[in-house]
Amino acid sequence: MQRVLWTALASFALSLAAGPFIMKWLHKLKFGQTIYDLGPESHKKKQGTPTMGGIIFALPSLVTAAAFSVAEGRFDFLPMVLVCTLGFGLIGFVDDFIKVKLKRSLGLTPMQKMVPQIVLSIGLSFWAYFNKSIGSSLIVPFVNVEWDLGWFYIPVMTFILVGTVNSANLLDGLDGLCGGCSLIDFATFSVICGVLAGRSAEGAGNFINMAVFCAAVAGGIMGFLRYNGHPAQVFMGDVGAFYLGGALVGVAMVTRYALLLPIIALAMFLSSLSDIIQISYFKATHGKRIFKMAPLHHHFELSGMPETKVVTMYRLGTIAMCLLALTGII
Amino acid sequence: MQRVLWTALASFALSLAAGPFIMKWLHKLKFGQTIYDLGPESHKKKQGTPTMGGIIFALPSLVTAAAFSVAEGRFDFLPMVLVCTLGFGLIGFVDDFIKVKLKRSLGLTPMQKMVPQIVLSIGLSFWAYFNKSIGSSLIVPFVNVEWDLGWFYIPVMTFILVGTVNSANLLDGLDGLCGGCSLIDFATFSVICGVLAGRSAEGAGNFINMAVFCAAVAGGIMGFLRYNGHPAQVFMGDVGAFYLGGALVGVAMVTRYALLLPIIALAMFLSSLSDIIQISYFKATHGKRIFKMAPLHHHFELSGMPETKVVTMYRLGTIAMCLLALTGII
């Protein structure tokens, strides 16, 4: 497992070194964040902080994942996960680019953003379905039963893919929040993949590559957090959040542990859920709200909790959920 | 290893639940921190924040470490580590108590603080020396050679014990700094002890107990960080820093991996080193300073880096060093 540790360290070193150059470049191109008009009042001061900082972890993690991956065994998982990660990352990139160039806070229209995501997700679901190392079943954690969904796998996995990626994007709203929680998520999946590699015989190489990939992303996030920690000098942007969401759900898909996502990525899950509850309740009651603001982290902020405290709470909760998830594996 | 994960989760839940009660009690007893007169100007506003919050992780970690430890194999390590942890914790407690009751910012005099530490350390060094599972040798990491120090083990280990505990105390100067770095340290030592347990036959129980103990402390710190994260509602105080330092060096001593401490606990090490360099240089030059202020984290602060950024940097650096240390074990 030395390979996995060195991957994380190399990716961390690269993103730490690349950070200042990428930030300078983003500043020059005026990729300053146009703060979402409906966010909390206190966030107005964040106007002008460069966005698209996700590039700081995206490039180093790709380079190190490629450099440290192994060719042994069947080489099934890595190409699929890379397409998933880069595909979603690209959609996020286009959205960021339009936001900045047109100075329009919301980027692509919801429709323009959703259609390519759904197309990509359906394609990935079919790819996984027909892959002999993956197929149509999910592993039910804790009881360790394989649950074969048959053709139903396609719509379910499409929903999980689109849902996770957009949840990651919703979580990205406070300094170091999405990055910090994702760091813990990828570290956990790296351990899970390492354990699975040790257990499987012919497919070990596949799982080693996933452990390496997760370590590469985790290391890249570490470097990014150096600059994104409060007070943030850069935001990850949609390119970053979509990249992380795509990478996370990609690994969950190929390892067949997608059902662990609501535990490991609970913070993302709650962001979506609170948004859905808020909007549904608002529509049903013609104007009443359950949360002071959705996603949930803004509710805590508006309830008087300092931004840094909310982030601390989310990170600690994520560690606890990841430990819980690991009890179902180790 | 499920036992280890559950220990951390139980300890986290306990400290999270105990936190508000302990803070209320500290408030009632007026255990507010009398901020060190020589600290940065900006820290004056922290006056009145209750100290001795280390109790929030100390009690839950003791309870869970005891509850989840195993009696199998030789029961050599845990009693020694508990004496080390509680012994140093008690010295810290007395120091805090005097600070608060006498409203004297520095607590015990340096002499009153040092003598019991040295006596305790010599006692522990002899205990380890005569313990058949420990003895007089240290493991040199990375090359994995046993280095037998003979009788020289006593002064060396005494120095390591006193040095580590006081370094932990020096690191405790910013919100979530000592707690955050220690959390990573204990998680790492828990993994190391888990790996050592898997490798050793008759002594496995000893190492399992150490993995459990480290997880208990790590979980306790997680709960504490909920309240100690910036802006801190409570400080750990000397009782907390001495407890953590004692626990950390205790585990390093019994596992014979004390030479990993400068890597895993680099943040603590740098705090001491910068203090020593600053004072020596000041004396040699009759009044010149190398750092704007020592320990090092205050230097970064006074150089214009926000407190939360310094803490982020230290935590990320600690993760990297711990990954590096693990390459020598796994």
Explain the overall architecture.
Two copies of one chain form a homodimer. Chain A has 330 residues and is mostly helical. The first copy, chain A, is built from twelve helices and two strands, in the order ααααββαααααααα. In chain A, strands 1-2 form a two-stranded antiparallel sheet. In chain A, a hairpin with a 4-residue loop joins strand 1 (137-140) and strand 2 (145-148). In chain A, helix 5 (153-171) packs across helix 10. The longest helix of chain A is centred in the first third of the chain and has 27 residues, at 2-28. Chain A is globular, with a radius of gyration of 19 Å.
Structural descriptors:
12 helices; mainly alpha; 330 residues; homodimer; two-stranded antiparallel sheet
Briefly summarize what is shown.
The structure is a homodimer of 330-residue chains. With 330 residues, the first copy, chain A, is mainly α.
Number of strands of chain A: 2
**Span between termini of chain A:** 16 Å
**Structural class designation of chain A:** mainly alpha
Biggest beta sheet summary of chain A = 2 strands, antiparallel
* Poorly predicted spans of chain A: none
What value does the Rg of chain A take, in angstroms?
19 Å
- Helix share, percent of chain A: 55-70%
**Quaternary structure type:** homodimer
Q: Give the largest interface.
A: A-B, 28 and 28 residues
* Strand order of the biggest β-sheet of chain A: 1-2
Amount of beta strand of chain A: under 5%
